[in-house]
From TrEMBL:
SUPFAM superfamilies: Shew3726-like. This is Uncharacterized protein. It holds the Pfam family DUF1488.
Length: 92
């Protein structure tokens, strides 16, 4: 089953990631995308913290496709296990 769109949890300044979730049926999969990855996707430099959620929404389809690929490959990190997306995940 393909992952479905979940919720936006917001920007976490300490880790410089935007938190969101994807749904595997009824199970919520925690996900995060780094600020630097989003800036690289938009060829931007240092988007303001207050604009991170808007940036995520513009890039959401690409970010969620990448999260789905990592999910299918079983590339989980952290506790609880989740998907972390960095700039390198969008290359290629």
């Amino acid at each position: 089953m393909a992952l479905a769109r979940g919720n936006i949890r917001g920007y976490e300044f300490d880790r410089m990631v935007l938190l969101f979730s994807m749904m595997d049926g009824p199970r919520e999969i925690p996900c995060a995308v780094s600020a630097s990855a989003m800036d690289a996707l938009e060829h931007a430099s240092r988007t303001a913290t207050s604009q991170r959620e808007e940036q995520f929404l513009r890039l959401r389809d690409r970010i969620e496709q990448c999260a789905s690929r990592k999910f299918d490959a079983g590339e989980f990190e952290g506790t609880p296990p989740g998907i972390i997306l960095r700039s390198i995940d969008f290359r290629g």
